[in-house]
Amino acid sequence: MAFIGDGSLSGGEAFEGLNTAGALKSNLIVIVNDNKMAIAETHGGLYANLKELRETNGTAANNIFRAFGFDYIYVADGNNLTDVIAAYRKVKDSPRPVVVHLNTQKGEGYVPAERNREEFHWSVPFDLATGEPKVFAPEPNYTTILRDFILSVHAADSRLLVVSSATPDSFGLSKEVRDTLGEHYIDVGIAEQTAVAVMAGAARNGAKAIYPVVGTFLQRTYDQLMEDWAMNPGASLMVVAGGGVNGIPDLTHLGFWDIPMITSIPDVVYLAPANAEEFEAMLKWGYEQDKFKVAVRIPTYSFEHADYQPDSDYSTLNKFMVTRRGSKVALIGVGDYYKRAEEVAALLEKEGISPTIINPRFVSGVDTELLNSLAANHDVVATIEDGSLGGGFGQRVASAVGASALKCLNFGLAKQFENQYKVKELEEKNGLLPQQIANAILSVIGGK
Q1: pLDDT > 70? residue 74
Q2: Exposure string (b/e) for 27-65, b if CB count within 10 Å is 16 or more?
């Protein structure tokens, strides 16, 4: 038995599976939960056929499942357990592959969820009586910065195309915002492969494409990132959310591997802002420049403000920013963990060490000139990154300084799966708390 929602039917693997299973001489049963929703509303030609099937009580001659070679049974009230069980009994001994198409109501029985189906795909704690959230994100935040940036660009540039893969609300793209964008917004459904291809194709043909995407879902589209995006001409901007330890803590949604994955691909510039002002500057540059494929990693750990003037031009690639010059120890804090580098520096100062603090900005390359210069008055360079150590930024730095006298320490997450973790506990497990990092550095240089 296989279970799939109508929103997931837009993904390539769903079509591949239906194509294969429909030709098998087996009794595979596919349950299609059709609630007329992906995460947001569904998009694409497939859904016109599902609507036709619903409106004809499953009798329409035009039936995509039969076209794939399946037998087919329709349940008009898929929330009615008696009807569903009766349908299952009809098909349980089928000698052929069969689809059971359930027409369901998302949020059945809870009026706020029935009315607000997109908002209730997931929710923060809410009042059971009203459905209103009990927790509100303070504004401004990184989501509102991105939303406002997109709206400002839309007002000024007719070339804009915003691409979504069924997660608009994660980026502040509410129904109202989507209506404002109009034809400058396209949702391809839960089909990240298509989203990357649309971004790349649009850019190649002169559009200014922005693709906001939840980073964990990029694992489905590595081929398109490389062959459709990186290998083709046309500048475009991908904005990556949910990376690192403070992303989604569920096993299937971990955001630990965006840096190793994206930075393994040539000709992609991956930027990791450390604060709100830098995030906005990188968005603006990434959109306006016409030379590079740019990805910007949305900070997720905290909402910080810059105590330095962020650059407005990142065309000189892989140029790290030294925000404080010291000696003996150089701390390189990536994106969210730039703040962590500052915390570690404060602890080292108590031990009589005044470290250099570096904001790398670029995680897709290294500043070899700066790294080489550190050897003159530093013994240790320590990288602190919010992501997997395996294939990550720190290992790239370690490779760059390997021939020098510098010792290189890398702090990040072990390459392993986690599930339903607590952030501080996972950080402690991986030696990422400020005092743990400071102690590890001191042990190397003889301080503790």
Answers
A1: yes
A2: ebbbbbbbbbbbbbbbbeebbebbebbbeeebebeebbb
CATH classification number, 142-297, choose in 2.30.110.10, 3.40.630.30, 3.40.50.970, 3.60.40.10: 3.40.50.970
User: Which part of the chain has CATH 3.40.50.920?
Assistant: 321-445
Please name the residue ranges forming H helices in 205-333.
222-223, 258-263, 276-288
d(CA 274, CA 310): 10
Which pLDDT does position 44 carry in this prediction? Answer: 84
Is the Cβ–Cβ distance between 380 and 409 less than 8 Å?
Answer: yes
Q: Taking the chain, what is the end-to-end CA distance rounded to the nearest angstrom? A: 59
Residue 323, burial from CB neighbour count under 10 angstroms (0-12, 13-18, 19+) = middle
Question: Fold for domain 2-103?
Answer: Rossmann fold (3.40.50)
pLDDT at 366: 97
The pLDDT of residue 124 = 83
**Single-letter residue type at 119:** E
Closest CA to 147 of 180, 186, 173: 173
Indicate the average pLDDT of the chain: 95
Residues of the chain with CATH 3.40.50.970: 2-103, 142-297
pLDDT digits (tens, 9 = 90+) for 13-58: 899 999 999 988 888 999 999 999 887 788 888 999 999 999 999 9
**pTM for this predicted structure:** 0.91
- Residue range 237-276, pLDDT digits in tens: 999 999 999 999 999 999 999 999 999 999 999 999 999 9
The gap from C-alpha 88 to its chain's centroid, in whole angstroms, comes to 37
How far is residue 405's CA from residue 57's CA, in Å, rounded to a whole number? 74
Number of other residues whose CB lies within 10 A of the CB of residue 356: 22
CA distance 324 to 379: 17
Q: Give the whole-angstrom CA distance, residue 148 versus residue 280.
A: 10
Give the up-direction half-sphere exposure of residue 89: CA atoms within 13 A in the CB hemisphere. Answer: 6
Q: List residues bridging with 409 in a β-sheet.
A: 382
Assigned CATH class of 321-445: alpha beta
Q: What is the CA radius of gyration of the chain?
A: 25
